[in-house]
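This section describes the prediction task in plain terms. A model, or a person checking by hand, is given the sequence of a single protein chain and must write out its three-dimensional structure as a string of tokens. No templates, partner chains or ligands are provided. The sample shown here is typical of the held-out split.
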Amino acid sequence: MPFPIKAVRACYPALNDGYAYLDGAAGTQTPRSVIDAISDAYRGGIGNVGGAFPASHRSDAIVAACRAAVADLVGGDPRGVILGPNMTTLTYRLSRAVAGPGDEVVVSRLDHDANVRPWTQTGATVRWAEVDPVTGELPVEQYASLVNERTRVVAVTAASNIIGTRPDVAAIAGIAHRAGALMYVDGVHATAHGPVDMRALGADFYATSAYKWSGPHVGAVVADPALLETLRPDKLASSPDTVPERFELGTAAFADLEGVTAAVDHLAAMVPGTGNRRERLLASMAAAEEHELELFGVLIEGLETLPGVTVYGKPARRTATAYFNVAGRTPREVAEHLARLRVNVWNGHNYAWELTGSMGIRDTGGAVRAGLAPYNDRSDVDRLLNGIAQLT
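The expected answer:
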């Protein structure tokens, strides 16, 4: 059946302002069910966890439900879901517990800096996987010479946040695991654009952020709880030593965690389906991916046919994310022109620090990024292309 785009769009109050929200790669809009869930959590009364009174019990239940929801979304174990303010904070926290001097880590030029700098700053020896700056591909073969018995972690993205490249994470994981190394997979961009199975990817750690898939600003890293038991992060002496709580510093934003669960439920319900939540998520996200890629075909073809437009990256497998420049205009000028037409896009390096450096555009303002989300429709794409055509 066709993707029910009108019904999906009707779930998002922000879309009523008349803008084309093509900035989803930086953060999506929020459906009414998520807004209501957060509001209802506050209205119902919440307290810190572990208390003897009902408001505390409600927070206990919110945390447990959130872990279960995130686990369903990525195919993980609820007992291994670490929750925190964002992926960057959690990755810094985990990197210190996983790697250090005497170890080796492998990072890639394709990745968002949040899956690069935390590892390069651990004191471990750093090895770099290079990206093809023209195609945007991350060749798997190079990992055979980068990974050895001293490698502690291989950190790689499941999808580039600016050009959408989906590298062969499972093949890279095979190389890493044969050497006894751990796989830390940045799924922040990928999770929003299709079904995820972290076990099939070979991810020992899978990181994601709810605000990229219609939720609030909450991050999560999912791992096997048995693996987490072997790690000893820095923590307060008085805070819990259980897994996954030992990795969660400070008090959680409990109402936002309620919003995360609502966001997962929203994703599972975008298309009619049966089965448990995990099964419905797989079907719904596959339908959303098909919808996005169909629109993206129109978007990318339109950009490539406009004179003076340079599109970066031509990966074989990708998310619906375009990164481009317009001759004679800075990326910021293009973004400002589109904003006047009520079209939202991003400009700059978008934290793809190494990739934009490899492309030779980081120091000249990067490029313009337009990314599709499940709630985008053909009119959004047409408005972007018409706006760019005015400049060319």
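For orientation: The chain has a mean pLDDT of 98.
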